[in-house]
Amino acid sequence: MTATQIRVSSPKARKPWTPSQILLTLLGTAVSVVFMSPLAWALFTSLKSETEAVAVPTHWLPEKWTGQAWKAIFETGNITNWFVNSLVVSVCVTSVVLLVSALAGYGFARTEFRGKGVLLGLVMAGLMVSPAVLGVPLFTTVQQMGMVDTYWGMILPQCAPAAMVYILYKFFQGIPRELEEAAFIDGAGRWRVFFTIVLPLSRPSLAAVGIFTFIASWNNFLWPYMVTNNPDLMTMPNGIATVMNSYGIQWAQLMAGGLMAGLPLIIVFVFFQRQIVAGVAHTGLAGQ
Amino acid sequence: MGRPDLNRRQLLGGIGGLAIAGSFGFAALGTGADALASGADTRVRYWNLFSGGDGYNMIAMLNSFRKDHPDIAVKDSTLQWGSPFYTKLAMAAAGNRAPDLGVMHMGRVTGFSPGRLLDAWDVDLLAKYGVREQDFSPQLWNRGVIDGKLYAVPLDIHVQLCFYRKDVLKKAGLLGDDGRMVPVTSADEWFDVLKEAKGATKKGLQTIGFWNSDQNFQWWFFLAFYTQFGGTWFNDADTEVTFDTDKVTQVLEFLRRHITDGYSNPSFGGLASAEQFVNGSPFVWEGNWSVPVFDTAKVEYGATPLPPVFGKPATHAESHAFVLPHQADRGGPANEGAHQLAAYVIRHARQWALGGHIPAYRPILSTAAYKKMSPQNEYVSAMDHQATEPKVWFAGSTGTLAQRVGPIVVSSTMGSAKPETAARRMKSELTRLLATKNPMDGKTAAQGGTVA
Amino acid sequence: MTTSAQTVIRPARAKTAADTATVRRKQGFQHGGWFVAPFLTLFALFVIWPLLRGVYLSFTDANISGDSANFVGLDNYREALDDPLVWDTLGHSAYFTLLVVPCITVLAFFLAMLAHHIERGKWLWRLCFFAPFLLPSTVAANLWQWLFNPGTGMINHVFGIDTPWLTDKSYAMLAVVICTLWWTVGFSFLLYLAALQGIPDHLYEAAKLDGANAWHRMVHITLPMLRNITGLVIALQILASLQVFDQAVVMMDFLPGPEESTRTIVQYTLEQGFTSYRVGYASAISIIFFVIIASFAVARMWLLRKGEEGVR
C-alpha cells in the first residue's frame, strides 16, 4: 500500500553497525521485550484452557494449545455485539467531530461575527470539562433528554471536543489568506471555498483529528460506562469491564476478549503508522 | 499521491461513506444487534449478578425454560456483582430503560425505592404460574412486602460458611465419628482446632483463608460474630446508636488473631484462599456459592455455619430475590413472561441448590433428593439463625453501610488500625449514617425512610 | 506551532486595515456564525449546560431519579469540606499524579531517545512502545490485574516474589501506577519523538565540530530544545492523572481497593452520584474538583505567559 511510497519519500543511506548502534539496539530490544511481554502473556493465556491458565506454577507457553477461549467468546455472542456497537459509536463520533470541528475551527480562524472572542474563550474553558470531572451533571442532562441507554446518549456528548476545534483553528490560521481571497474575487461563495479549497488543503490535519478521535472514542470507557446499562448496547471496553460472562472470571476468555478489543487498533497502527504518529504528534504538539 | 490514486480513493471514499451511513442508520435504530436478530414473539430481558457456579446453574435453568417455552426469548445479561450492578439497575430504572426482570439482594429492596425504581408483582399472575405465599417462610416472604405490596420474590437463602477439608482434619484428629468437624463453642477452642490443623497442613499452605483484605467478606464475618455476641446496632426507634464497642473490639481482635497467630497469610487473602484450599489448606471461610467450585475440584470437604465462638450460633445470611425494575409502560407479554420466568426458576431451584444456596421455595427442601445433597444438608440449619444487617435504608448487600464500615473492619484485621480504634471509628460512622437522610425520600432512618 | 496558548484568547487580527477592508467588501469572511453554530450547539448542550446544571444541582438535595429537588443552600459544600473521604480520595488522586507524572516524563524521554537514535527498524520500536496506548483502559487494567494476581500472576513468578500487589494497601496504588505507566507512556513518547525529529541537524553538527561528546550534545542541545514539549507533557499528564478512574476501578473490581487505598476523587464522586444516588452532593464534589482542575490550567497559562515575557 502506501507504505512503499513512504519508504521512498524518506531515503536514508544504511549506516554501518557501530559499537554504539549495537549497544543501543540491544537496549532497545530489551525494553521492547519488556513492553511486549504483557501482550504476549495475554495472547498465550488466551490460547490455554481455563484450567491450565490458573495452574500453579505459572508457565508462559500453553502446554496444550487450544482455541477454546476464542471459540467461546464468539459463541456467547456478547463480544461480537459489543464490537459492532464500538464500531457504530466510534464511526459516528468521528464523522460528527470531523464535520463540526472543521467548520468551527474555520469559523473561528477566518470569519468575523459578534461575540467571537467570548465564544472562543468559552471553548477554551471547555477543555477542562470532561465526564471524569462533571460526569454526574452530564448524566442528569442526558437523562433529562431521555437518552440514557441509547446510542445517541453515548455518541453526542463525545461530539463536542474543544481540543479538536482548537487544533483545527490553529491549523486554519496558518493557511495563507490569499488563496481564499483569490477565490472570493473569482466569485466563489464561502461554502464552496471552504469545501473545495480549504478542506483539501487540510487533509493531514483532518486525518490527525479523525484518527485521534477514533482512538479516543473506541477506547472510551468512562462515559459509555455511565450512560449505558443495557448490555446489548455496550461498547467493547465497557462490556468487558462490567459484564462478565456467566461462568465467572475466566482468564483465558477475558484475555481473548481484551485482545479482540485492542487488536483492531494495533493492526490499523501497523499499516498507518506514519499517519497515526504524525496525527498524535500533531494533535499533541498543537497544544504547545 | 498522483492521479492514479483517484479511483482507489473514490472507492475508499465510497466504502467510508457507506460505513458512516450504516453506522448512523444502526444508531438510529438503537436496539443493538442482538435485539435485531431475535425473532421471537416475546422477549424477556433479564439482568442478574450470577457468575461462577451460580452463573452455570442459572444458565442451565434458563436453557430448560427456553426449551419448555420456545415462544419466549430470554435475553439474560450478567453484570459484575456489587455496586456496578445496583448502580446500573437503578440508573436503568430511573432512565426508564429497565429490563423486564432483575435479581437483587433482599436487604437492598427497602433502600431501592420500591414504587419509584421497582414495580410491584402481580400476585395473581405469580399464582397462575405456581408461586404462592404459603410455599415460603412467612418471615422471608414478608421482607419483600412493602406498604402491602409485593416487590421482591425470594429465590434462596445464602450464608457464609466454614469449609473444611476432611482429609486434613482427619489427620489432625478433628473429625467426629459422623465424619464431620468436631463442634466448636468458644474462641479458645477454635484456635486450638486451628493449631491442631496447622500441624497437619502441608508446608507452604496457610491454615485458614478468610478474605482478610476484602471489605465485603470482612464485614459479613464481623456481622456474624457480632450477632453471636448478641450485639445490637440501633434502638427500636432508630434514633440512637446502641453499637457496643467492647463487644466490637473483641470480635475485631478475634478476627485479627488469625493473622497474628500465623494461621492466615495476608498474601493469600482474596481468591487465592480458595486456590490454597483446593491445594490442601484445611479451612476457608467462604460463601456457600463456593460449593460448586470445590465440587468441581474433587476436594473431600465439608461445610458448617461459621463457628459459634461468642455464644449463640449465627452466620451471615442474605437472599436473592426477583424484582421488576420500574418501567413506565410495564405490562403486556414481556411482563407476563417475566412473571413466568421468575416463577419457573423459583420452582425449579433444586438445580440452584447445586450452587450451595438454600432454596426459598419450601417444597424443595422436603424432597428426598435435596436431603441427600452434601454438604448442603450439613448447613441447612443456618437458615434458622441468620445474622442480617439492621433494617435501615442504608443497609443491604454492598450498600452504604457495608461500604463505609467494611473497610474499617479490614483495617483492623490487616493490622493498620488497632481494634479499639476501629471500633470507635465504626461507631462514629454509624452515628453519622443514622443522621443521614435517605437521598431518595429525604428522611432519616428514624423518620421512617422507606422501611415499613 | 510554536505559538503559545496565549493566542487562544486573542482572535487573529494580524491583518492590516486595508486587507480587512478588501475582504469586507467581498463579504467572504463575514457572518461566520453559521460555521460555528453546529459545534456551539453541541458544546452548549453537552459542556456548558451540564456545567451550569452541576452548579445548580450542587445547591440542592437532588437524587438520581430526576424528580424535583429542594434547595439546600451551601449544605453540600459544607458537608464536602467536612467529609474525610473527599480529602482522602483527593489525596489518592494527588498521590497517583505525583508518582505517575515524573515517571512517565522520564520514561517517555528515554524511550524517545532510544527510538530516535537507533537507526534500524524505527517502525518496530515505535510500534512496541506505542502499542499499549492503543488498548482500551479496561483491557490494560484487566491484563495487569492478571499479571499481579497473587497465585497465578506472571509478575510474582518472574521476579520470584510473593507480593500481595492488589490486596495490600501499601502496594495497591503502586500496581495501578505501574499499569498506567505501561499503558500511557506511548503517547508522551510520541510527542517527544516528534519533538526530537524537529530539532535541526545542523545544531548537532556544529556541536560535533566544536568537539562536544554525545552527553554534552544531549545536555546542551537536546534538553533545552525539548523544554517546551516537556512542559506540555507534564501539563497534559497532570490533567489526565488527576482524573484517573478507569484503571483503578477495574483493577480493584470496582471496589475502593484494600482499605480504600485506591479510591480516587472521580470514583468517589461517581459512587456518591450513582451508588448512593446523591446527585446533589456528587455535583458539589464535582464542582470543587472542577475548580481544582481549572486552577491548574490557569496556573499553567500564567506560567507560560510569564516565561514568554521573560524571554522577551
TrEMBL record, chain A:
Keywords: Cell membrane, Membrane, Transmembrane, Transmembrane helix, Transport. Residues 83-272 form the ABC transmembrane type-1 domain. The keyword Metal-binding does not apply. The keyword Transmembrane applies. Signal peptide: none annotated. It is a multi-pass membrane protein. It is found in: Cell membrane. Gene3D superfamilies: MetI-like. It holds the Pfam family BPD_transp_1. The chain crosses the membrane at residues 21-44, 82-106, 118-139, 151-172, 193-216, 251-272. It comes from the Bacteria. Belongs to the binding-protein-dependent transport system permease family. This is Carbohydrate ABC transporter permease.
From TrEMBL, chain B:
It comes from the Bacteria. Coiled coil: none annotated. InterPro entries: Bact_solute-bd_prot1 (IPR050490), SBP (IPR006059), TAT_signal (IPR006311). PANTHER family: ARABINOSE-BINDING PROTEIN-RELATED, BLR3389 PROTEIN. This is Extracellular solute-binding protein. It comes from Streptomyces ureilyticus.
UniProtKB/TrEMBL annotation, chain C:
It is found in: Cell membrane. Keywords: Cell membrane, Membrane, Transmembrane, Transmembrane helix, Transport. It is a multi-pass membrane protein. InterPro entries: ABC_transporter_permease, MetI-like, MetI-like_sf. Its main location: membrane. Pfam families: BPD_transp_1. The chain crosses the membrane at residues 34-52, 94-115, 127-147, 171-194, 225-245, 279-303. The keyword Flavoprotein does not apply. Residues 90-300 form the ABC transmembrane type-1 domain. SUPFAM superfamilies: MetI-like. Belongs to the binding-protein-dependent transport system permease family. This is Sugar ABC transporter permease. It comes from Streptomyces ureilyticus. The lineage of its organism: Bacteria, Bacillati, Actinomycetota, Actinomycetes, Kitasatosporales.
